[in-house]
Amino acid sequence: MKRYVHLALLALTPVMVAVLLCSTTTVEAKPLVVGNAQHGENVLELVGRSEQDGSAVTHFGYLTRIRGLTDDLLFSHPSIRTQATARFTFFASTTVTARHELGNIIATAAPGTLTIYFNETPSGDFNTPGSFAAGTPIATFSARFHNVLNVQATNAGIISGVADLIQLGSDSFMLDGVRYRLGYRHLRERLSANGQGTRTQVEPPKSFFLWGGNVVILRP
What we know:
The protein is mainly beta. It folds into two domains: 1-30; 34-217. The radius of gyration is 23 Å and the shape is globular. The model is unreliable at 4-12 and 15-26 (pLDDT under 50). It has one helix spanning 2-29, and strands at residues 32-34, 42-53, 56-66, 88-95, 98-102, 105-118, 136-153, 156-170, 173-175, 178-182, 188-201, 206-217.
């Protein structure tokens, strides 16, 4: 009888090992979620430039903070933290669908999409907008930008803007030997930004905006 029990245990051992290995592999493969927090908490910080050409507006720049990652991991060089060394960049395309004027205030709305990219070899250059979309896409969002321009002088003004973001999807990425995921599908966020705008052409309207901002989590 003892012999049969011993043989049965030997037969079960490979199965148990296989199960344990599968379980271990599954746990190790699960990426760590960053860029997530409680309602109202700050999860991302960023700087960018927006360019208007008629009704088309593009927004591009880089992330300076991601909740869950140390700031030094966001740049390829520990002491040079610029667009040229930024590992996380963004690019958005929007279309102006509403414009309202009151005195020296101009308010506009522009829906579109925004994508965040991971760059193993950073190469961001504000003179080349497409360089901010050269990496691997890791998070996509539907977006609705609302911008308020306070005209201060001819062709110059102060801007204050927000964008409602709904995450459409995400893909994991490897950084410093760890696999991460930025946010998750259906995550609701709000981007707030302030900066300065400069008009370069009256008709058709052309302008650019330099700004800094942050993103907070919204309650589902």
